[in-house]
Please model this.
Amino acid sequence: MTQEPTVIIRDLGRRPMPDVWAQMQSFTAARRPDTADEIWFVEHPPVFTLGMRGDRSHLIAPGDIPVVQIDRGGQVTYHGPGQLVVYVLLDVRRRQLSVRNLVQALESAVVDTVAAYGVNAAPRRDAPGVYVAGKKLAAIGLRVRRNGSYHWLAVNVSMDLTPFQRIHPCGFEDLEVTQLADLCEVDDPQRFRTDLEPRLLSRL
Model:
């Protein structure tokens, strides 16, 4: 029987986004064919991130929150305490995953997890992520280099959503965002992480 590729799970706690970005770039650059895949769970201090081809006009009024342009796809989003960010560092060729397959796996894991809380969520083909009644609950921003995926799935659990009003989230002027704490009784990122992890691993 073929052995399933190993996945190492790391809980990084609360870490500045630029530090984690540098760490995952180094990890991806040092990858070898036998390097184990990793998933990192983290929360970030407040920061706006803009994709490498992102349009800065979607930054309405960032104010005192730093803006970091990074090497992922997509437009602008916000990270802050109370949001669970899941960095997926996978050898996509070894796992026979296309980028679209990986996005669908991340979306499905979130949809199934929140369904257990009684929340009806769904992806959108025209705008990757997970939505509830038209409001965005989870965002996805990825890059693949040297067959290694990196960057994230970000799920709003229990956070201050007002910084999203300073941007056009994911490049959409009228897009509203939501969070689990406003949809169900789940308001702890660690509880959500515990429930999400097995569903995510089963899809990779």
